[in-house]
C-alpha cells in the first residue's frame, strides 16, 4: 500500500470480534486464524498455478485474465477489482516497475522479471501475497536481486513474535538488504489486514529496533519488501498506479500475509505446492 505516515489511521469496521490496540491494530481471536489460512492458501495456490503461464510472448493482461478466472472458479472474490477504481485481479510489475503495475497488452520478453500480486477474499477474510517470476532466462543480476528480496522477507518474518516491535521487522529487512548493497523502497509498505484489505499499522520495511508498536498475539498483517538494485526512490506514472524506480534500476518484491501467535508467527500464504521462488518452480 502507499505509505502515508502522519495520516490519521481510519478506524476499521467496528462490528468485528476481538479488540483493538491504542495504535488501532486489531487483535484477532484464535478462531480467526482458520479464515486467514483459507484465504491465504487460495491466493498462494493461484500463484503456484501461474508459473507455467509466464514465458516470453505472454501478455500481462492474459495472466491477469487467468487469475480472475481462478478466483471465480474457487467461488472467491478479487479484492483489487473495484478497489479505489482499480479494475484488475492482480498487479503485475515488470523489471523497473516497483509495484502496482497494471496488467494489459505488455508482451513479456526473454529475461523479464515480474512480480505478480494477488489478493482474494474468502468468507470475508483477505489473503494477500506476491512472488517473483521470470520470462525465459534469468540473468545473474536479476537472480541475485530476487534471492536477496526473498530472503529479506524471511528475515522480517523471523522477527515476528509477541514482545518484538514493528521496528524490529523493518530493521531486520533493511540491514539484510543493505548488507548486499541493494536498497529498500520507503514509499510503500505492508499493512494490517483481516476482514479488511488495508488496516493499521503501516508495516515499514526499514527502521530501528525497539521502535513502533509492540507485536501482540492475534495481529494479522503483510510484510512485502520492495528492493531495488539501484537507489530507493520511486515515482508514480501518469496512470496514477504504476510505481517505478526513478533511476530505472531493477526492482523485486515478495509478500506474505502473517499472523502473530503466542510464541511466533504463522504464514497464511505459504505455497501449498512448496513453491515460492522462481528457481524452485
Ligand atoms: N495487493 C497490494 C498490496 O499488497 C495492493 C494492490 S491495490 C491495487 O497491498 F488496487 F493496486 F490492486
Ligand atoms: Co499487501
Ligand atoms: Co499484495
From TrEMBL:
Its cofactor is Co(2+); Zn(2+); Mn(2+); Fe(2+). Binds 2 divalent metal cations per subunit. Has a high-affinity and a low affinity metal-binding site. The true nature of the physiological cofactor is under debate. The enzyme is active with cobalt, zinc, manganese or divalent iron ions. Most likely, methionine aminopeptidases function as mononuclear Fe(2+)-metalloproteases under physiological conditions, and the catalytically relevant metal-binding site has been assigned to the histidine-containing high-affinity site. A divalent metal cation 2 binds at residues 128, 191, 224, 255. It catalyses: Release of N-terminal amino acids, preferentially methionine, from peptides and arylamides. Residues 35-262 form the Peptidase M24 domain. A divalent metal cation 1 binds at residues 117, 128, 255. Its EC number is 3.4.11.18. GO terms for cellular component: cytosol. Transmembrane segments: none annotated. GO terms for molecular function: initiator methionyl aminopeptidase activity; metal ion binding; metalloaminopeptidase activity. Belongs to the peptidase M24A family. Methionine aminopeptidase type 1 subfamily. Removes the N-terminal methionine from nascent proteins. The N-terminal methionine is often cleaved when the second residue in the primary sequence is small and uncharged (Met-Ala-, Cys, Gly, Pro, Ser, Thr, or Val). Requires deformylation of the N(alpha)-formylated initiator methionine before it can be hydrolyzed. Monomer. This is Methionine aminopeptidase. It comes from Marimonas arenosa. The lineage of its organism: Bacteria, Pseudomonadati, Pseudomonadota, Alphaproteobacteria, Rhodobacterales. The gene is map.
Amino acid at each position: 500500500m502507499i505509505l502515508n505516515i502522519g495520516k490519521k489511521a481510519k478506524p476499521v469496521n467496528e462490528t468485528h470480534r476481538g479488540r483493538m490496540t491504542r495504535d488501532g491494530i486489531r487483535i484477532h481471536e484464535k478462531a480467526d486464524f482458520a479464515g486467514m489460512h483459507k484465504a491465504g492458501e487460495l491466493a498462494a495456490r493461484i500463484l503456484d498455478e501461474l508459473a507455467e503461464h509466464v514465458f516470453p510472448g505472454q501478455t500481462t493482461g492474459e495472466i491477469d485474465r487467468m487469475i480472475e478466472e481462478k478466483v471465480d472458479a474457487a467461488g472467491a472474490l478479487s479484492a483489487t477489482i473495484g478497489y479505489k477504481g482499480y479494475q484488475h485481479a492482480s498487479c503485475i510489475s515488470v523489471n523497473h516497475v516497483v509495484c502496482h503495475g497494471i496488467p494489459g497488452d505488455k508482451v513479456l520478453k526473454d529475461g523479464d522479471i515480474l512480480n505478480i500480486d494477488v489478493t482474494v477474499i474468502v468468507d470475508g477474510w483477505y489473503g494477500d501475497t506476491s512472488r517473483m517470476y521470470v520470462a525465459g532466462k534469468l540473468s545473474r543480476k536479476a537472480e541475485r536481486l530476487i534471492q536477496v528480496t526473498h530472503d529479506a522477507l524471511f528475515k522480517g518474518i523471523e522477527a515476528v513474535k509477541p514482545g518484538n516491535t514493528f521496528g524490529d521487522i523493518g530493521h531486520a529487512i533493511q540491514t539484510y538488504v543493505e548488507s548486499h548493497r541493494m536498497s529498500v523502497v520507503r514509499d510503500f509498505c505492508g499493512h494490517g489486514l483481516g476482514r479488511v484489505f488495508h488496516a493499521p499499522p503501516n508495516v515499514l520495511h526499514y527502521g530501528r529496533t525497539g521502535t513502533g508498536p509492540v507485536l501482540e498475539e492475534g495481529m494479522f498483517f503483510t510484510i512485502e519488501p520492495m528492493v531495488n538494485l539501484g537507489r530507493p526512490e520511486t515515482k508514480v506514472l501518469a496512470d496514477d498506479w504504476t510505481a517505478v524506480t526513478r533511476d530505472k534500476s531493477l526492482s523485486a518484491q515478495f509478500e506474505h500475509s502473517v499472523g502473530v501467535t503466542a510464541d511466533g508467527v504463522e504464514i497464511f500464504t505459504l505455497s501449498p505446492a512448496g513453491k515460492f521462488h522462481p528457481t524452485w518452480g
